[in-house]
């Protein structure tokens, strides 16, 4: 079980503060619902809170990381920590019966017991009813954590017996900060924050050589477009087409191209908005000086049109050749 307190503080400061306050004031409840989208830090916060609840020597509402209990939680071998997962479409009664049996065993260690129900919206009526007794009358110190993307999808009898911890979608600013905590450069973090709102996916992409190549190829094309159509077509045939072979790859590349033109518009408007490619600011500034709003708008529309044509399975070579011509037609100098 892994988590990063600094990362959680960046992406979910309110949820972290709320849980730390609950612990500090000795008001740990018997059941919580952690609601948040994938990549918003829900599972990481659950791991943090679980370790805090089971830690033998917490320091300022943070697990000590060194005690025997912390070591067991991190390795996934703590006898007082249990998980329930869906099996197919639902969390089945058998899984709940197994959980209840484990919780009732005398061999468990002294102190609090914690169990986590993943994708808890998949509890059906029968499995939920099995849980109700322990939710209403827990035997000793027992804390349940229900993880879900949508609290309203959880059966009301479960929902009404839990405290709700709401995780906000990760803002672009927070995602950039969180990625930088993971040693991702500001420039790449800025690009990733436009590509996905899922922090886990962004971290994975930051380590992906294919994404790095895609970013480099798109920037090469933008600079070629600013020169002339022949340079642009050369880059398309020598770099773009060999790099982006699958439809999903072309979709991402067109999005990255669109973000580049938006950057140029942002600079031309003297906006303080976060750029997708801050490392290209000097280049974009020169392009902004040489472009009119009308031409940049036409270029944005041309890219969006190409995006639509891609969905209709237009030949990708022809699509890109036509796009280069459209981008040159839309290009005018002030």
What does this structure look like?
Helix content is 58%, strand content 7%. It is α/β, with parallel strands linked by helices and 334 residues long. It folds into two domains: 165 residues, P-loop containing nucleotide triphosphate hydrolases (Rossmann fold), CATH 3.40.50; 123 residues, Zinc Finger, Delta Prime, domain 3. It has a five-stranded parallel beta sheet, with helices on both faces. Strand 3, helix 6 and strand 4 form a beta-alpha-beta unit. Helix 8 crosses helix 9. The N and C termini lie far apart (57 Å). GO terms for molecular function: 3'-5' exonuclease activity; DNA binding; DNA-directed DNA polymerase activity. It is an enzyme of class 2 (transferase). Its EC number is 2.7.7.7.
